[in-house]
Design a protein that fits this description.
By secondary structure, this protein is α/β, with parallel strands linked by helices. The protein is built from 10 helices and 14 strands.
Amino acid sequence: MPQDGARHGGSGPGHGACSSGARPELGGLDCGRKATAPGAARRRLQSLRERPKLLVGGGGTGKTSTCRAIVEAWEGLGGRVEMAALSGKAALRLTEGTGRLGRNCRPALTIHRLLLGLRKRRDGATHWLTPGVKPDAASELPLLDVRTLLVLDEASMIGLGEMHQILEAMPAGCRLLLVGDPFQLPPVSFGVCFHRLVEVERITARLTTIHRQSEASGIPAVAASVRARSMPDLLRFAGAAPGVFMLPCAREDVDAAVEEVIKTLDPEGTFAELLVVAALNERGSGSVLSLNTRCHDAHVKRTQAQGVRGWLGQRFAAGEPVVHLRNDYQRGLRNGSMGRIIAVGRGWSRPDGTVRGDRPGHVVRS
């Protein structure tokens, strides 16, 4: 693995060591799912040999599974790994996808927390300090050295400012793997680093086969059309059926139209396999606030479920799906974590509730 004096460039983790050792490592990896295809194995090996490297692919092409293989191969060769993503939900998904969700496993961090941890490490600290919690491997602060592979997921969203801080913190010999899709969200801040680097074919490995959905679902074809900036040919929605459909309506009728689709696809009102994605948060018909209000009222009317009003005026009832809106590391929640309310009650001074999270056995009381 990399030793002191390594520089950016070269063909392996340290003086060419990867080229002889990574092939047997990669050949035995199946990520707990299925055998590695020869082409995928070559791309994983290639991702270990360049510095920096980009792993590019659309949704469902296996980026996270490939990351797991790369991480396991790197550690199998004696290296260490740090992982981060811009959002808390993406960091949690990367942690789960690479098999690092456990007490003694060091999870992926948000980029903000990665940079904070590196500053704390520079100031002499070694662990995140949580009152009443004994420091362990999972609470160790991030460390970048000549043996480290730094994996950054959803890299298309990383702006120039964040990228500059990350590169400034990387010593010579530290490896960087940027994972993402240039067709997904660009940075909120200035700079499109990932989009420019993707144009350099020598450092870019591309995954193109969609595994998450079958061709029969119609989703890969529609996604390909959108990525090519062409209008897909969509049928009008006419009831529950596999595929991708369009439901034309006037802007002021979006709420009513969505509600009718929900009743068609989820007549029992369980929301077990239904997710509504809205373009607006709070303003007008079709916004998150407007749709949530209609769905909540329909749910309470149908089930007579006990409800409670939150501090900011939101209304909740047992049986409803919820999403967490900020990172809460002590409770294992991230901005975007989803769950379902299993009970509500009223304390003396504030409302309270119990939520089952989107991970098995994860129950949170507030």
